[in-house]
Amino acid sequence: MTTHLTPAQTAQALPYPALAQHLQDLLRDPSVTVPARLVQPLAGGGSFFVMPATDARLAISKLITFIPENATRGLPSIQGDVVVFDAITGQRLCILDGPTVTARRTAAASLLAAQKLARNINGPLLVVGAGVQGHSHVEAFAAGLGVQEVWVASRSTQSADALVRHCHSLGLRAKRVDDADAALADCPLVVSTTSAQAVALRAMPRPDAFVAAVGAFTPRMVEWDAAICRRLGAEGMLVVDTRDADHEAGDLLQAGIDVGALPALGDVVNQSPTWTAYAASRSTGPVFFKSCGWAGWDLASARCAVEAGGLGGAGV
């Protein structure tokens, strides 16, 4: 019988430091194939995502719905599953909770980028947007970077206070801040995880800042002011998660930036000529990591979960 992991079991199988390592390993694996994801509009205004990926051992597909209006219904905005198969026998190995995988692999990608690119990890960490991704990024940066202090900004005081309490439960110092732009001056680590329906940040990060911009993952979504994105491109360093960002990185696309000319996280991990040349020309200034999501991260999550759970078929 196929193992169907609950949200809690999925989270337990995906500890952030191990998951970040699996993401890095996947970026170095030439057997990985990730087709373009299918995004089907739904009648209610949401989207249905079909996201397959394979390597020499596993085949996965993430099947999720994204319904932004679900917050008003008291329902999660992301629902669905990640189905994991043995690539040799075709045996279905397990089913992971889709929202949990999405939250944790996205935060692990930001963690990996910070491990490779952040110039100052002493904190505090500013989190703008106090939803699921805000929670997962706090956990990831605490577990993987040793962050001890978190500042939280959100349009919802209730959500911000809830994330502050979560930080306290993790043994972290934390407080709510009402002006995210002003807080940028004091925070060398920044994560923006808003709903990306409107610009939320209009100030320049510190010269030694690392920013993970997570909320905007379609061309129409935006968190960061276009003029600030252009300044970051001129004065700092812009890195995208994958080449899928070329047509999905709303913040950068709306700023008129040629996203296709920017290095991706795989370039950083593999020290490609593209990255080496770019890094040599951008030795100072803030680092802005634009994350849009990729089924490869879900495949890395499946690898991590299969390894942690001892699940296996002929090819594992």
Model description:
The chain has helices at residues 7-12, 16-27, 98-117, 132-145, 157-169, 180-183, 226-235, 250-254, 265-270, 273-281, 295-309; strands at residues 3-4, 38-41, 47-54, 58-66, 78-86, 92-97, 125-128, 149-153, 173-176, 189-192, 210-213, 237-240, 287-290. With 316 residues, the chain is of the alpha/beta class. It has 2 domains: 3-101 and 295-309, ornithine cyclodeaminase, domain 1 (2-Layer Sandwich); 107-290, Rossmann fold (3-Layer(aba) Sandwich). The chain has a 7-stranded parallel β-sheet, sandwiched between helices. It has a 6-stranded mixed β-sheet with strand order 1-6-5-4-3-2. Helix 2 (16-27) crosses helix 3 (98-117). The longest helix is centred in the middle third of the chain and has 20 residues, at 98-117. The radius of gyration is 19 Å and the shape is globular. It starts with a strand and ends in a 7-residue tail after the last helix. Mean pLDDT is 94; it is low at 312-316.
What's the total number of strands? Answer: 13
Number of helices: 11
| End-to-end CA span | 17 Å
Q: Which structural class fits the helix and strand makeup?
A: alpha/beta
What global shape is seen?
globular
Radius of gyration: 19 Å
Biggest sheet: strand arrangement: 9-8-7-10-11-13-12
The average pLDDT is 94
Indicate the proportion of strand residues: 15-25%
Briefly note the CATH topology name of the largest domain.
Answer: Rossmann fold
Helix percent reads 25-40%
Residue runs with pLDDT of under 50 for 5 or more positions: 312-316
Largest sheet: 7 strands, parallel
For the record, the CATH class of the largest domain is Alpha Beta
Overall domain count: 2
Examine the secondary-structure arrangement and name the CATH architecture of the largest domain. Answer: 3-Layer(aba) Sandwich
What is the CATH superfamily label of the largest domain? NAD(P)-binding Rossmann-like Domain
Helix/strand order, N-terminal first: EHHEEEEEHEHEHEHEEHEHHHEH
